[in-house]
Amino acid sequence: MKVYQGKSVYHGIAIGKIRILKKEKRNVVRSHVEDVEAEIRRKAAAVDESMQQLKQLYDKALQEVGESGAAIFDVHQMMLEDQDYQESIENMIRTQEVNAEYAVAVTSDNFAAMFEQMDDDYMKARAADVRDISERLISVLLEEKQDLDSKDDKEIVVAEDLSPSETVQMDKSRVQAFVTRFGSSNSHTAILARTMNIPALIGVDYTEDMDGKLAVVDGFQGIVIADPDEATLAGYRKKEAEEAEKRELLQTLKGKESVTKSGREIRLYANIGGISDLQAVMQNDAAGIGLFRSEFLYLEKSDYPTEDEQFQVYKSVAETMAGKKVIIRTLDIGADKQIGYFDLKKEENPAMGFRAIRICLKRPEIFKTQLRALYRASNYGNIAIMFPMIISVTEIRKIKEIVEEVKKELKEQGIPFKEVELGVMIETPAAVMVSEELAEEVDFFSIGTNDLTQYTLAIDRQNGELDEFYDSHHPAVLRMIRMVIENAHKKGIWAGICGELGADLTLTDTFLDMGIDELSVSPSCVLSIRKKIREHA
Amino acid sequence: MTNFTFIVKDPMGLHARPAGLLAKEAAKYASKITLKKGDKSGDAKRIFNIMGLNVKTGDTIEVSVEGESEQEDKAALEAFIRENEAFE
Question: Is A328 a domain residue?
Fold first, then answer.
């Protein structure tokens, strides 16, 4: 058994036989031509033939991976026909009296260099496209035959790098994963892997001796395991089956509504901890974001993030979600999340100490900076704000006063913003007990079951020794949830769950019976919850 | 010569796909069509020229159309750009 570390550009598990694609290093020889016009005609014929090939590849890719995956061959045709590119080749043939292959190779290097010099990763990666079309042209000129079809079932394709043409020419039903030594996360191999939903790794320093061996590609950890032992293999076979099941769910449930059999629509949202989670939100088709933990903005920095820094992040999330609801929770630090520059005192009992909204109310300048950034961003999408660790009506009134101050300031400065929904996290027994009063002050509730359970059962979640006493389905917690939903509905506002219990499939029916309006879960759980909702009477 | 401007809305800027679409459309017109971003300019009928401008999302592009049919060409090209969500 041998493990190779790389960087994952798409997740998933694959098991198959390794096939290393060896690209023969072609040496394009420079030779003198007498009849330059004949050589240019030969080049023109090769361009026509290459265009035909690209048209066929486009059709093949269209069938196999759809429009977005096929588009690159449309672009390749335009690149191949580009006047600058063609003129450069013709000029070389004419002025230097050289063979077409050589003129193409030099032109290819020049155009690729232009992209490699750009300051943008995406554009840099386009050098591979220039090389790809040039290779094709040279290959036609040399009348070479390409053989990229897989021979065995279930293959893991390993190569130095893969061009779009190479990847699309492969038999997709056999390819289980891509592994390359070079390439980038913007490369077409990565894009294709995402469309095909198979794992892909880059930056793997593989050795030739792995060719033909059975291997596992773990796209979650970014590793290839060649010659896995029995136990490892068995473990991965199970994971592979689970992944396959998830993929199936994805296929059938994507684009469907989260509606119960009786026709009640549930807001099925996703929890995120940063911008990098947005891709997963889209892939799993969540209807919005039910909990955006804003802490990461503070945890990543060595000093307080400025209003502008925060605004850019909130704005980009709001824009990416394009009008779908984005519920952002204001700063929730303290307890297990400590930040140096906040200069918080060490506490005996941090879970019950100076944290979350308590910090914001004691240090309104930090709170106001965040609120200003949030309100400014509200203009770019559908933002809602919720406040953590609330225990009393007084707190929410105080918060609303600060919110009014912020809005007034923005108005005076002529900065545009929209009205946003305000909500509270219900995560203390106190908030549950006064939820009827709280409901008069806000637009929604979101139940944070992790803290609510810890405070209700008086069990520290960090303490493993208490596991035997901990019951996440404790009737006390479930009754509290029911009470919160009832009080919300009594006052005409909606209630949701954004804690771990929200993703507990054994409780989905219970919550739906209680009348829950929203469930916000981690992106990967969205589709399995949707299935459960659609099966509910 | 006649001009108009547009803003690139595609989050990845004028990457291969929209650059290709633009080049394909521009090729349909008889006029000479030039794209300008800051002090750099390129021929709108040539995909490598367009990509070479390294246009990012939010960038403003000035388009100049020059030729005998420049008024009609400008109107048609501008309509094409305004309709495409990657641009305006």
Answer: yes
